[in-house]
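#data-curation
PF: Archiving a pair of folding outputs for the training set. Convention for this channel: one message per protein, sequence first, structure tokens after, nothing in between. First:
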Amino acid sequence: MAVSREKGLAEVRFLTVAEVASLMRVSKMTVYRLVHSGELNAVRVGRSFRVPENAVHQYLKEAFTDTA
């Protein structure tokens, strides 16, 4: 089971806060707010955050369906 989890993590693409902000077309501060509120999953690496790309897509999908 640990091997499959490691393989899964190796396939995850992590984005910087700036990349997420650009992708979502919002400010970096907005991304930081989403991360700190727990609305957007992220991993802390040193003093910075890395956001799994699939977490961004999942957040946008949920946000889009909530407004419909």
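PF: Second:
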Amino acid sequence: MNRISIKLLGAALLAGLAMPAAAAGQRDGEAEIAKAVAGRTAGKPVDCINLRDIRSSKIIDGTAIIYEMNNGVKYVNRPRSGAQTLDWTDVLVTETTLSQLCRIDTVRLYDTGLRSVTGWVGLGDFVPYPKPPRS
């Protein structure tokens, strides 16, 4: 076998290994979301959330962004596009002219180590998960 054939075979093997790993990462993302909203029930999805009410955000690798609001409600946003580029080490860069973040907005992902944009996502619906009632 010549060198090129060996390299192509190696690349094909690595690609075959990467696909199940990506699928496993997606499943892990779903488990992380379930853990983050445990004990909460999903509400009716909304198109927008107020920027001033966002306390924090958390990126779930390859899956979603969770926005926690000042009132304790967590909104899970599963981007319509670009979700595969979500990486918890990135910073979300949002540019909007309104006081709301909406499902039509795009968010850039910025890697502070590389000092560059690593991707972007087109936001989807914001699914609210209110705090569970006290018993």
